[in-house]
Amino acid sequence: MNKKYFLKTLGCQMNILDSTYIQILLNRVGSQTQDIRQADIIILNTCSVKETSENKLLNILNFVKKIKKYRKNVFISVVGCFVEKINFLFFKSHTYINCYVSPNYIHCILYFLKIFFLTSSTHICICKKKQIVKKNVKTQLNFIEDIIKFNLSCSDTSSQKVYIRIMKGCNKFCTYCIVPYTRGLEFCRSLESIITDIKSVRYKDVKEIILLGQSVNHYYHRNINFYKLLYIISNTISTKTKIKFLTNYPKNIVYPLLNLMKKTNRILNILHIPIQSGSNKILKKMNRNYTKESYAHIVNIAYKKIPNLLISSDMIVGFPGECTYDFRESINILKYTRYSNLFISQYSPRPKTVSYIYNTDDICKSVKSARHNYMLKVQSNLSYLKNHTLLNQIFRADITYVYNSDFYINKVILIAKTHGNQQIIFTFNSKFFFNKEVLIKVTKVYKSKIFGEILL
Fold it and tell me: Rg of the chain's alpha carbons, rounded to an integer?
């Protein structure tokens, strides 16, 4: 087969990793196109964590339906977390979709493509109960780790990143979160398989290795915890490669981990630690199993041990029962934690979750939107104050991105990333420094951008 495929990714880094794997598979049968109208194969990798992602998917499907109307031989597949929650009514109203694949089954896509293009089959569906449903015929498959290709690492050649999944699923069961129901319970890979992936990219020009897991610092496999795993990896990688890991669960941030980050320069000084709310009442309703005080203590210790540490977080506004006082508590925690970045979401009820079943979504959309905008404004101002402390400082940084400028004549714009993962933008008259380490002085700061000049 020599087909053109279109691949659209919605959602988190896990979906990006899955899409990279799908891309590797589809490259065996054709080439990628950015024009969905010219594609023979359309793959939509979905997310169901937020309602906004689902709305985006439905909008895309409305357009895909029109394509299918005039091109019957186009293979259309919906993959990812969204597949685990759709019901019979959705199947019935979207008969133009040929294939549904849940996250653990993406290795089967080539098999379904073969069925579609080489036979008269038109509708295939993946069930949650380890069965392939093809029309009225059910075929049992053996699902083991080797078949699932769970240990695949995928590289992003454009930015010289490598994503490595060290675990999948989640056991936390936060009341708002659908992940345990779509990606399953927590399962950690063996140390040997992870190190094999690490060694496979050691001699390539890789700048950054990103370890992925829903609660990455909860990793534990055969007496190897996350701290030990990180220590082993940091002594395995090339000296030019940096390690980043996400997402962290607050209760699992331990002193040995922070001490390791302080001692080695192979781990980026950045932590993503979702708090979700600054109200103890709401945190309890979310089943987060920590208080704002214990979270603040963790952050305080982290800043003391690693002074140039950058901490980012997630926050949900409009959770059921969140009153004005609870929201103020969330604003107060922002001022204490001094995040470098904050990802804010408006609560949307997810089917199957505890919050969906037992809580009433009692905060209207206008209030959620107002709280979201206010929190965004507060964080923006805090980011500016944090960035302002960098003014006139000199950093050692790697040039990671370069592009031509229409505004600056005879110059290119370059982006440098410091060892603390801070991005600095500067202009120069040559691309010579791309992929090289340089000294940069910060000359100007804004709420979301930092500008500098190179020191020759």
Answer: 23
List helix spans (H) across 264-406: 280-286, 292-305, 324-337, 354-358, 365-388
331 within a domain of the structure (yes/no): no
**Residue 160 and residue 117 share a domain:** no
Q: How far apart are CA 182 and CA 47, in angstroms?
A: 10
Q: What is the mean pLDDT of residues 162-171?
A: 90
CA distance 153 to 194: 9
Dihedral sign of CA atoms 441, 442, 444, 449 in order: positive
Report the distance separating Cα 397 and Cα 207, nearest Å.
12
Q: State the average pLDDT for the chain.
A: 84
Within a domain: 290 = no
Quick count: other Cβ atoms within 10 Å of Cβ 28? 9
pLDDT in tens, 221-262: 999 999 999 999 999 888 778 899 999 999 999 899 999 999
Residue 221 inside a domain? The answer is yes
- Asked if residue 185 and residue 138 are part of one domain, the reply reads no
Distance of alpha carbon 28 from alpha carbon 12, whole angstroms: 25
Spatial CB neighbours of 87, under 8 Å, sequence gap ≥ 6: none
Q: Which of 268, 303, 324 is the last residue of a domain?
A: 268
* Structural domain that includes position 164: 150-268
Alpha-carbon gap, residue 39 to 76, rounded angstroms: 10
Last residue of a domain, one of 268, 291, 320: 268
The token pair at 339 is 């995040």
Task: Report residue 342's pLDDT band, with 50, 70 and 90 as the boundaries.
Answer: very high
Give a yes or no: residue 131 inside a domain.
Answer: yes
**What are the beta bridge partners of residue 276?**
315
Cα separation, 35 vs 20, in Å, equals 18
Look at the chain and count its residues. Answer: 456
